[in-house]
């Protein structure tokens, strides 16, 4: 018996939408049936490379009757309505993070998501990175004993434009959101958030009252602590490290090298070329694995795709971090 | 012209006192003139190895007229009185950290220290570690641009006995105190402290209301942030790492290997033997350099020995961290 | 103007033939037009995955008129005749190494190759590995000064079956041949070969009078020396390292890790999972780049594809090494 | 019962003699009783720092009756006569390498050494390096299975003056001699030597018909192979690496770092300061351990001090390498 490839409708053809289009086209289990973007030239360009019928109207995708799933990669403000439309149409959805910048809108959608039975997954791609996934599996297997401290370093190569900062929801909702989910990948039950933010280099962040550098400390119900260090820039390339500490040892994820070559001279030994520059390279495998896992979810197979609730939990943590950094208090959270 | 070696009186012959006795004996610029401990057998044992007249009475040392400096390595509770006695006797003192567990006692002594003109230095040995000192010098030289984030990982190999915990003043005053000083080595002007503590493995800490694991975030007046991760235990040996992040790069201090040998097999490649076990090995060079710097201070030469004020600042930060971790708020500090 | 993809005839569908089939299918500039193997089921299996008309007769491929190039991945003994046939048909050929086990047959073909003008390239894939290519470029750019010593470590994960050893032509012609070409990639003008072979673990090698371990030293006309260390097995995975030493420094190529994760415990720190297992993983990028370079050659564009003469030179070095190891003398070679 | 420190006569106060003087003075089991050098100012300078009666006449040392052992660190040409004198006087001797540049003189002395019962040890200090000693012990313990290949890289930071080259006996007898002994530390029973030498950068070597770069391959009776790579210069500092390869894995000795600090920037990541510059730093611990082991030998305790025979074997290998490199043949040796 042959399984037909899942027919995807891609909504949103910006940078991350193009990544997903490539993944859908490359995976033998998926095909690109529809490509939708109000900026129809973007949709057309994607369609030319990867196939799919072009439209500027998401409603047409849902009404077409020939999509098995949608991948929502449009601007954040559209996510809630598109998920709602997907549920109405009975079409499973994989939605990029964050669900929304406003937890009230997320909460309003929650009952429908829960009761509908339509699969909704969140695009926390890093869970599918082989290194992070391996560390989590090894922690779960007891290699270092009970997790006591998780350290996440997450720095982007360069700050986004001020215009992006203006609508981003702030560093915690826009950037740390990935790290909150990563912390919950290891320690789902976070109970307290303490965050310190500062603005030391980025004029755009300063202009819009945002931080360019932040340190967040999360406490889990178990007593374990997670630390997250963020910066909007990093001279050495995309800085994505993780360290899990337990009574029996430490598991570490190093930055991804771009070469096996090192140079030693009279002044510096064992120097290597800079790390991978950004997420497209660093998480290429993760995006493909994320899609495969979502296919399993759609097919009713056992799946570990991050859920709508995971997306909501990450946003709750971001809100708490924003409040903590602003009011200089630790903030209790209830993710249940 | 030959300079006579400085004649030291060593007060306190426990573990750290013995380290200092060995340093004093090994340094051609210093000799051990007096060895003092109420537990006179300890003093006698040190004297037999490294020389010096034995006494159980510190007053005798100060009255002798034949010491050029004292090294105070006795229990914390005795430090303030011994520094006061040193000032009265006009004898320069190098005192182990912390000055005291009670900031009020430290503040009470402060005017006398300031007005006396007698050199008083604090034993923040890690400032003299070649690796940390090198990173600080390179940051100061601008190698990574303006410091934006400082990360300190500091874990002891194993938790002390419950009886020690009981009188230690808590993890922040007893253990993190070193890391507070290290943070101030890079960022002297700390203005806010946020700390999270937890007790996940150590029965002694639990019994005495202490934490065995702590994460502290410090904010400097410049906006830079320092993160400190502590644990009372570490399977991999003494875990002492530091990372300085700036716009132009990252300077890192790795853990100290015990061997140049690595083993690669079918299951693990490039595995190396565990790190140095504890501070006697890890900071052997630092203790010797600390002593040399203090000798310069005593001789009126330019010296970077940490001051009484440095000791007070570290204690203020520890107090703030204790309050932050207990009350779940960020605590403003004024170190001026 | 659009360039049509090159239509390839693949001759030989064993392990390496399948690698090339995948590369040809994946590269937008190439398509698989014919798949040929006397073991026609193998050809059929490849055709089903990657396309192409199936035949068991190479003559049919050349006669078809619809191939732009052939990729010769058949057994070594067939290479010379197939290259000759390609030249006769005016079809450019990319041939796997070695050209033949008998230098006389290679020399007999040489004039035809030279006079025909038909592009013939040799499959020395390692030249296209990003790490080795980068080191060569950096040496050429003068980063370490004039090359004085080149060190190559090349060990396969496990010895081949005795039946393979029997017809392999011996370790130098079968395995070191790649390393001879790599040495010539840096030092084309080798003038002397000294080799030491030994048989310490492999019953198959012993049975067929072959070595399982060999060390070869090459002297270049410039005076520079290249060292090659080979073994037919390696517990740690495919061991492929290179080091270029010059007056100003050292460029090193490390083994390829399979993960960014390391584990530190009380007994071993910074241990990582084993290296990539074998050439399919280690040289995946190299095979693709090798194909792209051959496409340039076929199209008459500037190309660095290894030539028939490179293939002949590597075989001359292998013959010299075999003689050196057997007769215990250094052997002079003339590669001009 | 207290053991009296061994009273040493030091003969030769050049660079290596001064190293030994410091070791003798620092070790509580040894004292410097006599310091001898025909260049009596050198002897005097050593005596002033480390004690001992000064003389320019080695005979006086042996006749004094108050030395328990001699350390021979004089020019190579004097070693044989001084060992003979030590044997005659019944005084144990630790002699620097090589014994002599002329194997005939060594052989002539051999019967006396063997029959005398007077302990004679050779200064192959590297056997006592903790890293090399650890690898040997771990190989012996079977961690990688039966040793199949040993790789030694040994490069000095800078070529010696031409005048030194002139009387050095050539690179194999002067420099590789250490590596021959290291090879025999792992594989005592070497049966064949193949060496390739070249002169690519050093005018002094060229002037005196010596090589500045050499690669030597040794075959052991077991079939195992040792490779030695030498250069008279190394931009990255003292290059002293070793790798032991067996069926179950690889043990490696890395170069000795001078700092725990690494720097990552936009152009180079994880760059570290250069390695230790030369043998005084790199082998400081080894020299002390070598002395302690010789003390055990003198006291009749079990000792692993390298023997006169070890010194002779290394010279035989050096002679064979010189012949191999000159005559372009593999040279059979009999070390029994």
Brief characterization of the structure:
The structure is a homotetramer of 336-residue chains. Chain A is α/β, with parallel strands linked by helices. Helices cover 39% and strands 23% of the residues of chain A.
Give structural notes.
The structure is a homotetramer of 336-residue chains. Chain A is an alpha/beta fold. The first copy, chain A, folds into two domains: 6-118, Rossmann fold, CATH 3.40.50.720; 126-332, Dihydrodipicolinate Reductase, domain 2 (2-Layer Sandwich). In chain A, 39% of the residues lie in helices and 23% in strands. Chain A has twelve helices and 14 strands. In chain A, strands 12-11-7-10-9-8-14 form a seven-stranded mixed β-sheet. A six-stranded parallel β-sheet of chain A has the order 3-2-1-4-5-6, sandwiched between helices. In chain A, helix 4 (79-89) links the parallel strand 4 (69-72) and strand 5 (93-95). In chain A, helix 4 (79-89) runs parallel beside helix 5 and helix 8 packs across helix 12. The mean pLDDT of chain A is 96. Chain A binds chain B through residues 144, 146, 148-149, 151, 153, 155, 192, 194, 196, 198-201, 213, 215, 217, 219, 222-225, 227, 229, 231, 233, 235-236, 239, 245-250, 328-330, and chain B through 144, 146, 148-149, 151, 153, 155, 192, 194, 196, 198-201, 213, 215, 217, 219, 222-225, 227, 229, 231, 233, 235-236, 239, 245-250, 328-330.
């Amino acid at each position: 018996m042959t399984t037909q490839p899942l027919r995807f409708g891609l909504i949103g053809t910006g940078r991350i939408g193009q990544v997903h289009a490539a993944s859908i086209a490359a995976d033998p289990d998926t095909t690109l049936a529809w490509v939708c973007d109000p900026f129809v030239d973007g949709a057309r360009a994607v369609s030319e490379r990867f196939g799919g019928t072009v439209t500027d109207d998401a409603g047409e995708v849902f009404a077409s009757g020939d999509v098995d799933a949608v991948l929502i990669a449009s601007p954040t403000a559209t996510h809630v309505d598109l998920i709602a439309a997907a549920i109405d149409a009975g079409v499973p959805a994989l939605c990029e993070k964050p669900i929304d910048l406003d937890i009230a809108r997320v909460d309003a959608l929650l009952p429908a998501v829960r009761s509908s039975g339509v699969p909704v997954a969140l695009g926390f791609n890093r869970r599918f990175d082989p290194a992070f996934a391996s560390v989590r599996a090894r922690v779960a297997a007891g290699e270092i004993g009970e997790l006591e401290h998780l350290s996440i370093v997450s720095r982007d190569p360069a700050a986004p434009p001020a215009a992006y900062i203006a609508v981003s929801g702030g560093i915690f909702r826009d950037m740390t959101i990935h790290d909150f989910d990563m912390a919950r990948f290891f320690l789902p039950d976070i109970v307290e958030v303490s965050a310190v933010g500062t603005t030391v280099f980025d004029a755009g962040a300063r202009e819009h009252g945002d931080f360019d550098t932040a340190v967040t400390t999360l406490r889990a119900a178990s007593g374990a602590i997670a630390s997250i260090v963020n910066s909007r820039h990093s001279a050495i390339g995309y800085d994505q490290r993780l360290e899990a500490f337990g009574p029996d040892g430490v598991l570490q994820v190093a930055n991804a090298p771009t070469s096996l070559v090192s140079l030693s001279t009279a002044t510096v030994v064992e120097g290597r070329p800079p790390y991978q520059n950004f997420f497209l390279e660093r998480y290429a495998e993760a995006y493909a694995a994320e899609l495969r896992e979502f296919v399993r979810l759609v097919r009713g197979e056992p799946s570990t795709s991050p859920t709508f609730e995971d997306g909501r939990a990450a946003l709750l943590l971001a809100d708490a971090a924003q409040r903590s950094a602003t009011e200089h208090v630790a903030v209790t959270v209830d993710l249940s």
